[in-house]
Design a protein that fits this description.
alpha/beta, 4-stranded parallel β-sheet, 15 strands, binds zinc ion
Amino acid sequence: MKLFNTLTRMKETFEPLETGRVRMYNCGPTVYDYAHIGNFRSFLFADVLRRYFEFKGWKVTQVMNITDVGHMVSDADEGEDKMEFALKKLPAELRGKIKDPWALARYYEDAFFEDMTALGIQKAHHHPRATEHIPGMIKMISTLIEKDFAYVVNGNVYFSVEKFPKYGTLSGNFIDNLKPGARIEINPEKRHPADFALWKHDPKHLMKWPSPWGEGFPGWHIECSVMGMQYLGDAFDIHTGGEDNIFPHHECELAQSEAATGKRHVMFWIHARHLMVDGHKMSKSLGNFYTIRDLLAKGYDPAAIRYSLISSHYRQNMNFTLSGLDAAKSAIMRLREFKERLENSASTDHPDAERLLNDAAAAFTAAMDDDLNVSSALAAVFDMVAAMNRIEISRKQADEVLAFLKKIDRVLGVIEFGGTAALSSEEELLIKQRENARKSKNWAEADRIRKILDERGIILKDGPQGTTWKRK
Ligand SMILES: [Zn+2]
């Protein structure tokens, strides 16, 4: 199998360090807000990658962290902690309910897991919280100071990039080229403008811990180094994230991890590209900013969201559109209808069936082995579906095809969708009819439809933004 390694900027053959066992770390969410569909593209990429490793018969240990302290608004050292910033800007419905950054973190962590479940994303084996790994961080920072890779000024601890000549290898941002600017502000405490904080001394910070350098909190980068090593060892196979994590986050993580252990930290750094919406960068002001719950509230099928976000290659910028979700839904329906047809197949053996199936299976694996090319793997499946829909096959042949569909769906997770069960088109229609009834103030009709849906296990909630639904 080949994977594109950001570190070498090449597709390289991937073999786990330990035969048969893949150790993978995925940079997880910072729980100060709902994760948006761009974040979920990256988390879904990690989910499909893990499932494909398992498809290949490898055991996987997957870690996805929860960042609940120390991630500054700028992604570098400047600005406020995102948690404290978000606490001041709480949406109206949470004001009064959430009083401190701890409660804020738990609220958005729960929301994150709900969204993961909705999309059928498997839980990682470990979801460590940064706030629960502070002693490990203090220990690694102490090691870096002892080894002279870090220095203390006024209770702040900084990593000295000049002591680590490889700094810049991952992102291409070598220290000679790093000019103070948007990402790097002049801080008189730093020996080099690119030095970054390992520990921030700040007795006023709401989330703070005692340390040998005074009360404060850890830098964002050291969190991932420590949690990765604790659960996966000093050196492990794969570290993923979105492309905006490459610098400064992963560059700094690589530097401090390798400086601390003297070993190569990660074999493959893999990054998912950005997601655009309607051809533009997603932004709240453009009105093209979507969370998973926004889309579910609009009635979109979570399986279609999953399909749409996994079906373009992770290293291509993806253009997400709502019409793309409709197309994704039809694609899933084609697969489900095909499956239903197979379940009812009872003709005689067809001479082409075996070849069609073998070709599709080979093409699927070849595409996925080529840097997880999901779109081309799906194309191979749909070629087979189209060809098989033109012939009649026997029960035995149909069972073989069904077994293949089951196997690939353990990777894709869209046919037998493991997330929140989607609405049928009839249920969707009922919700629309009820909305119309409400608009014309026909409350009796609206209540009648609500009861029908309730009997089917669908709970409706009417809010200022319209009606949302969920399964009981
Ligand atoms: Zn990280």
